[in-house]
TrEMBL record:
Keywords assigned: Membrane, Transmembrane, Transmembrane helix
Organism placement in taxonomy: Bacteria, Pseudomonadati, Bacteroidota, Flavobacteriia, Flavobacteriales
Protein name: Putative integron gene cassette protein
Keyword Membrane: yes
Keyword Transmembrane: yes
């Protein structure tokens, strides 16, 4: 079954809302609990996930060192389990949200490929997470090339997430314009 068929069959307001609520619960748990706790462990440094422009090898070593063993374990066993659930929920909820509004403006068929933006963001979030497992379990023996690759995953994830929200705002603007007209 294709993505388009699956989305079309599940494009109800109730399902869109359910996935939005589920992804929001996980997101806000990270934002208000695990990420602030990690920032405390790291003496105020931002964690990798919160660096949309990437990070250097020097920054990665400093962050991992500041986290200490307890902070690295918290990252590995508290933050990352949530961040392995979140990308899937992000992809599912945002495919449905964008598809729902594309259908409302009559562009679901012709603009359907736009729903791939949250999918690409989610895939790179997973790649970033696997890279973070490497960093957290290999520290202090991490490679500079490894950090560059993982940082690139973070940047691409952030780029496609941002582009997705720009697309969503554009579609919502069209919908509002159509409603006003």
């Amino acid at each position: 079954m294709s993505l388009k068929t699956t989305v079309s069959r599940n494009l109800t307001g109730k399902k869109v809302l359910t996935f939005f609520v589920l992804s929001s619960v996980v997101y806000f748990t990270m934002i208000f609990f695990t990420i602030p706790k990690l920032t405390d462990f790291a003496n105020g440094l931002q964690i990798f996930d919160m660096k949309p422009n990437g990070y250097s090898f020097t920054y990665a070593k400093e962050l991992l060192g500041n986290l200490g063993k307890s902070g690295r374990n918290f990252y590995l066993f508290r933050q990352l389990p949530l961040d392995f659930v979140y990308p899937l929920l992000f992809m599912m909820s945002n495919i449905l949200i964008l598809s729902f509004f594309l259908k409302k403006i009559g562009k679901l068929e012709s603009w359907f490929l736009l729903v791939l933006f949250p999918v690409i963001a989610g895939v790179f979030d997973y790649l970033e997470n696997f890279g973070l497992i490497y960093l957290l379990t290999s520290y202090p023996k991490i490679s500079e090339i490894g950090v560059r690759i993982i940082s690139t995953f973070t940047v691409i994830k952030s780029l496609f997430t941002s582009l997705y929200f720009v697309i969503l705002l554009f579609v919502l603007a069209i919908l509002i314009f159509k409603k006003i007209k």
